[in-house]
Every structure is written in C-alpha cells, then in structure tokens.
Amino acid sequence: MVQKIFRIKGMTCAACAAAxxxxxxxxxxxxxxxxxLATEKLIIEYEEEKLSEEDIKKAVEKAGYELIPNExxxxxxIKGMTCAACAAAxxxxxxxxxxxxxxxxxLATEKLKITYDPSRVEVFDIKNAVEKAGYxxxxxxxRMVDKDKERKNEEIKQLWKxxxxxVMFTIPLLYISMxxxxxxxxxxxxxxxxxxxxxxxxxxxLTLPVIISGRKFYKVGFRTLFKGSPNMDSLIAIGxxxxxxxxxxxxxxxxxxxxxxxxxxxxESAAVxxxxxxxxxxxxxxxKGKTSEAIKKLMxxxxxxxxxxxxxxxxxxxxxxxQQGDIILVKPGEKIPVDGxxxxxxxxxxxxxxxxxxxxxxxxxxxxxxxxxxxxNGMIKYKATKVGKDMVLSxxxxxxxxxxxxxxxxxxxxxxxxxxxxxxVIFLGIFSGxxxxxxxxxxxxxxxxxxxxxxVIACPCxxxxxxxxxxxxxxxxxxxxxxxxxxxxxxxxAHKIETIVFDKTGTITQGKPVVTDIISLxxxxxxxxxxxxxxxxxxxxHPLGEAIVKEAEKKGIKFIKPDSFDAIPGYGIEVQIxxxxxxxxxxxxxxxxxxxLEEVENISDKLAEEGKTPMYLSIDGEIGGIIAVADILKExxxxxxxxxxxxxxxxxxxxxxxxxxxxxxxxxxxxDRIFSEVLPEDKAKQVKKLQQEGKVVAMVxxxxxxxxxxxQAEVGIAIGSGTDVAIESADIVLMKGDLMDVVTAxxxxxxxxxxxxxxLFWAFGYNTLGIPIAMGLLHLFGGPLLNPMIxxxxxxxxxxxxxxxxxxxxxxxxxx
Length: 816
Fold this sequence. Notes:
Layout: E1 2-9, H1 14-25, E2 30-36, E3 41-46, H2 53-62, E4 66-68, E5 72-79, H3 84-95, E6 100-106, E7 111-116, H4 123-132, E8 136-139, H5 147-178, H6 196-213, H7 215-226, H8 232-255, H9 267-291, H10 293-299, E9 305-310, E10 313-318, E11 327-330, E12 339-344, E13 347-350, H11 352-355, E14 361-363, E15 368-369, E16 374-375, E17 380-386, H12 392-405, H13 412-439, H14 444-457, H15 460-480, E18 483-485, H16 488-493, E19 499-503, H17 504-508, E20 514-520, H18 526-537, H19 543-554, E21 564-568, E22 572-577, E23 580-585, H20 587-592, H21 601-609, E24 613-619, E25 622-630, H22 637-646, E26 650-654, H23 659-669, E27 673-675, H24 683-692, E28 697-701, H25 707-712, E29 715-719, H26 724-729, E30 732-734, H27 740-774, H28 777-780, H29 788-807
Parallel strand pairs: 19-26, 19-28, 26-27, 28-29, 29-30
Antiparallel strand pairs: 1-3, 1-4, 2-3, 5-7, 5-8, 6-7, 9-10, 9-11, 11-17, 12-15, 12-17, 13-14, 13-16, 18-30, 20-25, 21-22, 22-23, 23-24, 24-25
Helix pairs in contact: 1-13, 5-6, 5-9, 6-8, 6-9, 7-8, 8-9, 8-14, 9-29, 12-15, 13-14, 14-27, 14-29, 15-27, 15-29, 18-19, 22-27, 27-29
C-alpha cells in the first residue's frame, strides 16, 4: 500500500470533490480516497501493483477535472559537458530516477532543468545520477521553483484580473439598464423608450466581455453537467446562460420591431452574477491561502544554505546538498540547517517554532539539534544525522499536511448532501419556474427570474469548505504549540474524551531517575557513602546505578577502581573495593546475604511511601546506609491533571511499579485511580477494560511498551521525546513532552468542533432559507421577489463567511 497526494485542478465546490472521490474509489486497488476542497488535494491510498498514477489521472479526468502531481522544478549547472552526446547522457541518467517527471539539458547554457516529486527524490539523488554519468551538477538555488505555489498565486492574480474586467463593463451596464428606473440621467440616444435598439445592442456588447471573462464557469459547468456530475459551476452556467439567451432573444425581437421586449432584458443579471461570483472566488482563494499559514511558517524555518567543514575549509552549500555525515558549522543567531549531533561547542537553542517551548534549551556535546531551530549564543560544530525528507521538520510538515488533507467524521453528512445537492437544485429551479408559469399564471419573465435565482443562490461551496478549512487552521495552530494532530478523526474524537490513561515513567515523571536522599549509618559521611556506591555502579548499565554515578560526577567525587564486579540480575551488584566486600541493591539482596535491615526499616518504609526507591549498601556484612533514587515528576504534571479533572475528565495512572510506590506518585499529582504492577503487554488490556465501561479513552505514553495501548485507545497521545514506535502508533504527538499540551489538544479539539458546527449550521441554514426565498416563498405571501443579482452576491458571500469563521481559530489560545 502506498499513500500519495495530488493536486486537483478545476474543482469549485463540494460536488466536484464528491465526483473525484466517486471516480477514484471505483478503481481496483484503492483502499481510501479523500478529496479536500480547501487544499484542492486528493489523498489516495492504493496498491501500487494494481494501479498506476496514469490510471488515477484518467479517473480524475473522467470526472471532469485535472490531476496535477506533487512536483517542483530546479535548475542545475552541469560541468564537464562537451557535446550533444554528453547532454543526452545526463538527460538519460536523470530521467531514470524514480520520481523525476521531466529532465532537459541545454548544452549551450550548460543547464539541466528538472521537474520531480520532492517526496520521492532528493537533490543528492540527482547529483549522484549526474556524477555516475561522468559529470558534475551544481544546484542554482535562486532558480528553484515551487510549481504549486506558483499556480496558486497565478490563479489568484487571474481571478483579480477577471473581476476588474467584469467591474469595468458591469458598472456602465448597470447604469444603462437600471439607472433610468431610479431617476438617473440617460442620453436620449440610449433611452429605452426613445432608442430601444441602441439600448439593447449596447447592453449586449457590454455583457459579452464579462461572459467571455467568466468562460471557465461555462467550460467546467457544462462539461461536468454532461458527464453526469453537475457542480456549482453548472448552476452558474445554466442560470446566467438562461438570462443571457433570453435577453439575446429579446434583443432580436427588438431589432425585428417588437419594442416591448426592450423591458425584458436580463443582461445586467448575467454580468453582475459572473462579476460578484468571481469576486467571491477571489476572496475565497485569498482566505484559503491564510488557512495554511502554519505550513508556510514551518517551510520558511529551514535556511537556504549551510556551512560545512571539509578539512581546513569552510564551504557554503545549498541545504539540499547537505548529506548525512557532513560536519556543519553554525554561528550564534543562525538557523540550524539539518538534524544532527553536536561534536564541538556548547550553546542554547530556540526550538519554539517546532516544539512550542518558549525557553531556549541548553545544548552540549553529544546532544541532538533539530533543523530549523535557532542557535542563540554559542558557535557549534555538529554532525548531520538526518537530511531532506528524514528531518524532524520535514516529518512535521508532512504530518501536518496529511492532517490538513484528512476528513473528520462530522464531514460525512455534508459529503453525502453535496453529492445530491446540485441535481436537486436544478430540479427545484425548473420545478418552481414552471410552477409559477403554468400553475401561478405568471409571465415567462417572472418564471425565468425564479429559475435563475434558485440556481444562483444555491451554494454547495460553503458545505464543502465548512469542515476542511477549520481542520486546516486547527492542525496548523496545534503545530505552533508543539501539538501534532495526525488527522481530522483524532481532532474530532479528542473533544469526546472521558478518561485519560497516563503511563507513569517518562510521561508523568521525567523518565530519568535521580538521587533524592543519602542516609549514612555509623561514622561514615554522605560523601563517602556516595563515593563507594558510585564506584561500585561505574560498570553497571542499570538506570538506578547511572543516577548514582551522575550524582557523584555532579558533586565532583573521585571514583575508586573496584577490584572485582559481579552483577546479580533482579537484585543488585557485588563488588570488592579497597579490600572490602560491598553489596548494593534491593531488600531481597540484603536478606539473601543475611544482612540485618532492622536499623533502617522505618526509614526505607518512609522513602517508599514518598515514591522513592531505596537502594541498600552493605560493607563487610553490615548495613552502611541507603541511597534513595526516584524518577521525579515533570513540573507540569500536577497542574495538567488538576486541569483535566476541572474539565470533567477522569484520570488514570498505569505503571509496572508496586502499589505502594504507585500510590505515592499518584498522591503527589492528585490521581485517585491507579493500575499498578501492570506488565507492558497488559497495558492495552487495561485500556480495553475502561472502554468496556462505555468510556471514550485516551492513552498517553512514550515507550515501545505503550504502542499497543496507544493503538487500542480511541485517541493515542505520544510524548514526542519518546520512541518512534510510540509516535507512529499515536494519533496526537506532543513535541515537548509537557502534559499541559494534553489539555491544549483537548481544548483545541473542542474549539474546532464548535467552529465546524457553526460553519455547517450557516451553510445548511443559508441554503435552507435561501432556496425557498428564491423559489418565491415570500412572493406567495405578498412579499418581494428575490433579484438574481442579490442571489449571486449572497452565494459569493456564503463561502467567504465560512472560511472567515474558520480563520477565527487562528486566535486560539490554550486556557492554562
């Protein structure tokens, strides 16, 4: 199974999206196919053996639209070419790369112009292919082209030009056709009562440029209509064509001498509708661009170049040319180009745009740095570990893009309705027009007004945009706070959460044990006891032993080399130091070697009640003291759990610890329900038990052993500092591991669902009210008839209002 994203050109409303989905879902091998109207993208999951991109392209074209692959264009200077055979060799080598769409070499300019899918091809793939052919490729960074961005910008420009052209002809047309009705002066040569022919002909000539400028509505509208999948453009095309053709017929009758038809012209309706809807489309495109600002910000984080160290030289190269293993130099104030590990220098790094963490993080040798973060105050050298699409930033962008393209279950109703919407509207338009003419006894002109108004006021756009625009803004906003939501379904389900299960180690606690207490007995001081314990544990890899060693290093204590070392799994260690026999470990180890613990029993019980692990140290058969180690709480744990309880959510802690230690930790953070002594493989079973109680459960964890439980829960939330397996299994990833971000995710979900419901209410409400009014409901009770021009304006504004409402989510702030 592969998942690919394609841009779909020509879609204008939810009916278009539904048509593309229907057409692609019929293909053999397709598991899932979702179209997002807001991003104009198709996310399709299919079996590559059964289906090709060409098949998908044909299915989209069959539905009446155009599939545009995800691709960018770059220019390389090719060194070493001498003849046409060289150019042909470079072309052949680059065209063979899987993911390259086009490659052409100009021998005269020594340039390779190449178009490729960036999700499948890296710059170094192209350079390697050229080198294997015997030449050298140098990327011209300033000539990079993002085709998708170019298309969208061009689209917005074209819409604005079409609107200006429409305004230029529509304003004089409105003045001529309607000005005299409200007392505005009109020259005799153009007055309908004096010169009806001039009046009609001029209107025809003023309308034609507007109709031509809006030809896309007719081209797409009639094409989809004849293919059996009518869309919003079909409604506009039928409505304005009816107005124009009737007016054209009336103009011919005027030319033939029947001057009464001069008062039956609808040219201004056709022109105003086209112009207003073009303005609506322009505003919608601009607004939709704002919904993906978070992605643009993330994409703008990576610097264009990097300084790499080769021998004694520092060379500035394009970011796309950086390879794994390169040594990169970053000066204070500069952005870190790619992911890596520091090999020289110390600094603090601002990772706020990636994790939402506002305080810079201290970085030393062997610490990891993330591409896109900002080096604040020290010069560092680091080794590149992840480049291109493998970088954390690239993964975040991919994850957010996929989430923005996904659908929430709440959108299903709108999808179903939009599939039937346009044919029903066409039927209602014809039915109401004929009804008024044959049953109501109204004129043809009156019936035509009804028909046009019904077609023009109906707007499946607002239905199609209601959910995806809100999801786009919300997932982008979440990314700003370091909360990565993988899809619309997780975003929707999060607001229903009733119970949250927290893993203890590394989730509620820091996952890094530290020494909390040193209790020495006899005449030994604490420092001597720590020296013996740390020297004994120096060869151990146990986390508790490492905590003792780190404490000694922090205090600058000198280590003594043991004469012998023996690890006793599940108990502790036995060592010989300075001729003395040392045991260091748990209670069982001491009892097995008949070492009395009576003197320290009360102390060890008190430490266990505080959630600390006592490690006993004996010297030559006598208890010498206790070193207590604890996995300390994260600063935010208590505050987050308190906030969740305030939100009415039950909190459960799950751990492999014994009941006493588990209860102590739970008491510190305010959790009253605990699952203790749970084996890693049984965590998912405990989640299932809660679900059997009829609860919507979220699981928060960070380790490999949490992955099954994360997958079992309705919403799996992984700590971003945890393992890749846990992150892969989760629906939501918290980049900085702060439990307050669990609260943020739920609050964001609640705000988003509220926003979607508002959008759907206005979209449904608008059509529910608008269509009956257009059908003449008010006129039936002595009220006014809806003018088609007002219907056109209302239709344009309905989509803009839905997108504008979604943009309000950009103001979301978590309540702490």
